[in-house]
Amino acid sequence: MTTSFTLQATDGRARAGELRTAHGTLLTPAFMPVGTQATVKSLIWDDVRAMGYNLVLCNNYHLYLNPGSEYIASMGGLHKFMNWDGMILTDSGGFQVFSMATLAKITDEGVHFKSHVDGSRHFFTPEIAIKSQEYLGSDIAMVLDQPVAPGATYEQTKEAMERTHRWAAECKRIHTREDQQLFAIVQGGFVPELRRISAETLAEMDFPGYAIGGLSVGEGKKTTWENLDACIRYMPEDKARYMMGVGSPEDLFYAIEQGVDMMDCVLATRIARNAALWTHDGRINIDRPIYKGKDEPIDPECDCYTCRTFSKAYVNHLFRNKELTAFRLASIHNLKFLKNIVTGARQAIFDNNFEKYKINFLERYQVVDEKVRLDQKRRYLERKSSDD
Ligand SMILES: [Zn+2]
To answer: Would you say residue 116 lies in a domain?
Structure first.
């Protein structure tokens, strides 16, 4: 299949490119805000646009369950339903079925599960995952895949990977919508050798783009980057590479450094709603009493609406009084913070200066302690009812 991706520049393994879709062109490396339920939580599209984003990620699992993908098709498709004329990428729902729903049975035909919302029973197959995304009409759809959790055995990991490959072939055979690109998902758990096999097997199937799934799901960071390295080297250079579920400011740098083009994560908006904000010096909790009386922006180097308009003291006041605007202002700041990182990275790659750009940022940025991070991730994954 002809690709819609053009590689424009490289710097080491880091890449700059552009991905053309039916609703616009994505300049990469790119971060994609998550709008699981056809909305980026607490924001309106003007906010998303003003930050410079032209692609949002929605979730097939959630929309299939509620309000239903056929229903959305009857409302004119997802773009029209949510009145967003930019690009939309939909995740197939594989990750959500395996991480949020109560699983009943997995076979090569598909997966039986109970909805995390109301306990209703469903059967998800490659065909349903594709048909549903065709109803939604996203610009980029994903194949149904089977990720494994940290701690899976080699045999479990291999079985899930091989099923992912069979499902990828079936999804490709079923997919018909020409204005929608279908990306495959590399799996292989935390076994570098399987990661390589998965990348090579899927590369032969000739998809227009490729994702790396099943990483950054609660394993240690070292494991994440080792397994990314094990597969990304074997992924086609002339196709877009999308690392799912990344991330934090520092993770964006590490992923881009290895040649990732696209990333998404709920972290920016989820922690924003808990008053955690990124700055060039690290993460702060703006609801702490120390920010009372601080008449200065959250980050003086940030050009987001929140930083241009309000003081730390004001945002602190909103959070402490549980004012709803706090969610919006905090989400705007964190999403723009990531947008600025990827925009800077793209420029640095063109300038052959990515390494220096990365070091400059990371030398100053105080990374959240690994133990704290894993603890937060574990608590989040345990709280299955939460969607993003
Ligand atoms: Zn800001």
So the answer is: yes
Question: Which residue is catalytic, options 91, 139, 299, 388?
Answer: 91
Instruction: Mark the residues whose beta carbon lies below 5 A from ion ligand 1.
Output: 302, 304, 306-307, 333
Report pLDDT digits (tens) over 23-67: 999 999 999 999 999 999 999 999 999 999 999 999 999 999 999
- Catalytic residue list contains 11: no
Domain boundary among 221, 247, 265: 265
Whole-model pTM? 0.95
168: CA distance to ligand 1 center in Å? 40
Helical (H) or strand (E) element with 5: strand 5-11
Q: How far is the CA of 23 from the centre of ligand 1 (A)?
A: 28
Taking the centre of ligand 1 as the mean of its atom positions, its distance from the CA of residue 221, in whole angstroms, is 27
Between the CA of 329 and the centroid of ligand 1 the distance, in Å, is 9
pLDDT for position 86: 98
Residue 264 bears catalytic tag: yes
Name the residue with tokens 């959630």.
62
Alpha-carbon distances, residue 123 vs 65, 67, 111, 165, 239 (angstroms): 11, 17, 6, 19, 32
Query: Annotated catalytic residue: which of 47, 145, 264, 299?
Result: 264
The amino acid at 312: K
Per-residue pLDDT tens for 281-311? Answer: 999 999 999 999 999 999 999 999 999 999 9
323 within some domain: yes
Evaluate whether 3 touches 210 at the Cβ level (below 8 Å). Answer: no
Helix (H) or strand (E) holding 186: strand 181-186
What is the structure's pLDDT at 211? 98
Q: Which domain holds residue 261?
A: 7-265
Same-domain status, 231 and 313? no
How many independent structural domains does the chain possess?
2
340-374 in b/e form (b: 16+ CB < 10 A) is bbbbbbbebbeeeebeebbeebeeebeebeeeeee
Query: Residues 285, 234: one domain?
Result: no
Q: Is the pLDDT of residue 382 over 70?
A: no
Interval between CA 314 and ligand 1 midpoint (Å): 13
